[in-house]
Amino acid sequence: MTGLLVAVPLTPAAAAPGDIDVQLLAVNDFHGRIEVQTGGDGELVTDPGPDGVYGTDDDIVELVGGAANLAVTLDQQAADFGGENSFFVGAGDLISASTFTSSVFLDEPTIEVLNALGMDYSSVGNHEFDRGTDELLRIDGGGCVGQQDVDSCFTDSTGDTTFDGADFPYLAANVVYNDQGTDPGEPILPPYQLLDVGEGQRMALIGVVTQTTPTIVSPTGVETVDFLDEAETINSYAAELTDPAFPGGPVNAIAVLIHEGGTAVGPNAGDFNACDNLEGPIVDINAGLATGDVDLIVSAHTHQAYNCRLPRTGEPVGAGTRLVTQGGFYGKLVSDVRLQISPTTGEIDPETMVAVNVPVLQGAGDPDVAAIVQYWTDRAAEQGQLSVGSQSEDIDRAYLAGVAVRDSESSLGSLIADAQLASVQSEDFNDPVIAFMNPGGIRADLNCLSSGEGDPDGNVTFSEVFTVQPFGNTVNTLRLTGADIDQVLEEQFPNNPNTPPDDEIRTTLLLLSVSEGFTYEFDPNATWGDAVDADSIMLDGEVIDPEGEYVVAVNSFLAGGGDSFYGFTNGTDPVTGPVDVDAFADYIGANSPVSAPPLGRSVSLDPSRPLDDDGSGTGPCSPATPTPTPTQTPPPTSGPAPTTTQPPGGGLPITGAPIIPLAVFGGALVLAGAAAAFGVRRRQHLSLRCRGE
Prior knowledge:
Number of strands: 32
Largest sheet: 7 strands, mixed
Strand order of the largest sheet: 1-16-17-15-12-10-9
Number of helices: 13
Shape: globular
Distance between the termini: 37 Å
Helix content: 10-25%
Strand content: 15-25%
C-alpha cells in the first residue's frame, strides 16, 4: 500500500440540499497531559521554514498543548462548524503514561478534565489496561478501591470524593471476556454507540484497540479477557449495523475509533496534514475490512499525524474514499473531521468528508479548565513531598571534573538497574537475571542534602525520585541470547554500522548501567565491534553463553531500540511491568537507607580512561542516625492488577510506538469564534441526548 495514498482535500465538496452536517473533533494518545508541557512535549513544528524541508534549523516551532488550551481549540472549531451535530471523541490512551500530576492520583485528574471538556465517546487504548481490566472498569464507571482519598477516590476540584468515573463511555468491541471472565464471549464495554444526527438518521461509532495489547501490558491485568482481530471485529459489527433487521433500521454511516495506527515514511511525513507513504498496521487493518460500509477511521497508537484516504473493498488503487486520520499525541493537535449524511439513505457522501489536524496553540486558556488543572497541580506538589525512604550518602550520576557525563559508570545508574531487576522478579515477568539502564534516562542526582524545612538530610521524597526518572517509561522484560547481549554492549560505542539507513548514527559513547552480578571488560579505544571482550561478559561469575538465553529487564525506551541500542529489538517474549519511577521508589523504601553501589560492574582496560564517576559531583550528607524508613508513601502507581480491596497499579508510557517530528499546518480551519452555543459544554449536553440510543 505504500505510496498509494492521497492527501485529504481541505475544502469539502458541495453538499446536496438538506444533507445532515456532522463534526467529529478527535484526540488520541493524550496520556494525561493536562498541564502545559515544557520542552519538546510542548512544541510543534508548524512550518518547514524557508528551505521547505522538515527537520532543519529554520523550521517554525510553536508552543502547543495543555487542557485549558485544548478547551479553547475545541470551542473554536465547534463554533466554526456551527451545527448541532458536533461530537468530541477519543481514540484511546487518554490516561496512563501520564505525568506525575495525574499518575500519582491514578489518572482521576485526567478524567475530571476530560469530563469538563465534554468528551462524548472514546475507544480504549492499550494504556487503559496498564493497571488491569478491573481498574479500567472503575475508571469507566466510577468507584473506590482501598482507602478513600489515599488509594483512590481522591478529593477532586469540587470537593467530591466519590469518583463517578468518566462521563463518556469507553468503547471496546474487540475486548471480550474469556472463560476466566464474568461473561465469556461478551465485550467488557460497549462495542459501539449510535449518534442521533436528526432527520431520523443515525451514525455509528465502533471502538477497537490494538490486538497486541496483551504483549505490552502486565499479563495478570488482562488474564480474564481476550483481544480479537481488529478487522474481523469491525467487519462483524458493520454487518450487524447495516442489516435491514437492525432495531430502528440499518445504520449506513459508520466510523471507527481505533487505537492502532500507521507511520508516514515519505519526505513530507512531518506535515501533519499530509499523507506521505503511510504504512503499518492501520494499512493492513483497512485492507482486511471486507465491507465498504465503514466510511471513516480515526486512528491512534503510533503518535503520528496524518490525514489519508485508503481504498475500500473493491476500490481501485490510488482512488480510495475511506478517510483515515490521526492527530499526533499529548493533545498537541485536534483532528477536525466534517462530513454530510443523506437524510433519505443515511449514507455518508465520501466527497464531503474532510479532515484537518488543528494545532492546540498555547494562550490564555479556558479559565474553568485551567482552575481544575491548577487544583491537581497543587495537590501533586504536596504528594511529591511524601517520603519514600532514606539514603545514607549522596548517590550521583557519573561526573568528570564537576560535570555530569554519560560515558562513565555511575552508582546511581547501578542502583536504578538493581531496582528495575528487583521490580520484575516473578514468573509473570519470566524471572529476569540482568537489568540495563540508559544514562540519558537519569536526569538528576539523588542528593542527600536537605532541600528545606520538613526534608532532613537523607530523606528521599517522591518528587526527588521522579526528578531522577521523569519520563514515565515502563520496566520491560525480554528474552535475549548471549550474542544479543554482546551486541548491546558493543552498541554502547559510537559509529554503529548496524544503524538503519534513515537513522542518525550516534557518535558518542553511552555507557549502560547494569545490575549487580553482571560484569564485563572493554577497551574504549578499540574499533567498533571489538570493544568488549566476549570472554569477560559474566553473570554471577559465569561467562555468558553466546547461544544461551537470558531474560533481561530494560525500560521501554531501550526495548524499542532507543539511543541506537538496536540489539534489544532482537528480544522475544516481551512483558511490560511497572513504571520505572515507581520501581525505584519501591526499591528505596524496601532497602532504606540506601547507599551508593560500588563501581566495577563495567571495567575499562585503559588506565588512562577509566570511565568511572570521579566523585566530583558528590555533595555533603549528614543524615540522622539511625534513619527510619518512612511508612507513608504516595498512592501506588505500579504493580499487579487491582483487587476489590487493594489500590491499582500505576500508569505506563508509550510502548515502542515511533514518534517523528510533527510539522506544517496546511489547513485554514483555525478560525476565531468561541460562541458559547457551539462550545464544549454544549457538546456535553448533546452527548446525553445521543447516549439514549
